Amino acid sequence: MILFWITVFCVALVFPLIDGACTNSTQLKLCYNTYLEAYELSAVPFPGYRAFKTLREMMLVEEGPVGQTKECGFQTSLISCLGNIGTTTDCLSADIFVRTFPNVTHADAILYIQDYFMMQYTCTDGFNDAMKYFYCMEQIGLYYPSKLEACSETEQQQIANDGGCPVYNNFVTCMSNVFTEYCGADIRKYICNLEVKGITGSAPQCANSLQDCSKPPPSN
After folding, report:
1. CB proximity list for 51: less than 8 A, separation 6 or greater
2. In this structure, is residue 98 part of a structural domain?
3. Got the DSSP string for the chain?
4. Which residue has the higher pLDDT, 220 or 99?
5. d(CA 118, CA 193)
6. Would 99 be classed as within a structural domain?
7. How many domains, the chain?
8. pLDDT class for 12, splitting at 50, 70, 90?
């Protein structure tokens, strides 16, 4: 699973998130400190998402599927450490992330939140597909990035035109089409679920507007 060539193009439609009673910043700090240490990074200052993503990409390129398994080990530990905090967007939101790690920009916080929920899927229900299509996804990320960028650029334009939640379905379908073109139709469910999990994590208000990945993609 080359999550990092996928999430870099997933731009969030920003909504204010309500944290309710979730104020355990100490636990969030502890868990992410441990998580970053696994990558030999420090949480003080908290790394920008691009720097973090680049480091993970290098691990995957150098170690292949073994690196993916290792990264899922790190992610599983993070999920376990966060406990209930990591199960709801009320407790794990961009707003809370910024308050906990003040040097993180809101844009990077959104990407970290998306990343968490996408990796959560990849390392659980999506793991077998992530390993099965590892090299195909890697090739697309390395040799066809312009097609992924086109999905992102269209998404950004639609967001700028106040396209609202339906913009995300277009993005999910666009990304799914890129990967199915090269990896076959069976990869669609994985890519669709991956993107939907990330979007739902960062923009939960759009959850009911997103496509059902077990069904054919909606027609435009």
Report:
1. none
2. yes
3. --THHHHTT----------TT---HHHHHHHHHHHHHHTT--SSSPPPHHHHHHHHHHHHHHHTHHHHHHHHHHHHHHHHHHGGGGG-TTTS-HHHHHHHSTTS-HHHHHHHHHHHHHHHHHTTTTHHHHHHTHHHHHHHHHH-HHHHHHHHHHHHHHHHTT--THHHHHHHHHHHHHHHHHH-GGGHHHHHHHHHHHHHHH-GGGGGGS--TTSPPPP-
4. 99
5. 8
6. yes
7. 1
8. very low
Contact 157, 192 (CB under 8 A): no
pLDDT of residue 114: 93
* Lookup: tokens for 53: 């993503």
pLDDT at 24 over 80: no
Residue 214, domain member (yes or no): no
pLDDT for res 119: 96
Residues 174-184 pLDDT 10s: 999 999 999 99
Q: Tell me if 218 is assigned to some domain.
A: no
Structure tokens at 161: 């035109």
The pTM assigned to this predicted structure is 0.88
Identify which of 217, 162, 164 has the alpha carbon closest to the alpha carbon of residue 189.
217
pLDDT surpasses 80 at 10: no
Whether the per-residue pLDDT at 14 is higher than 70: the answer is: no
**Calpha distance 209→218 (Å, rounded):** 11
Domain span at 50: 4-10+21-209
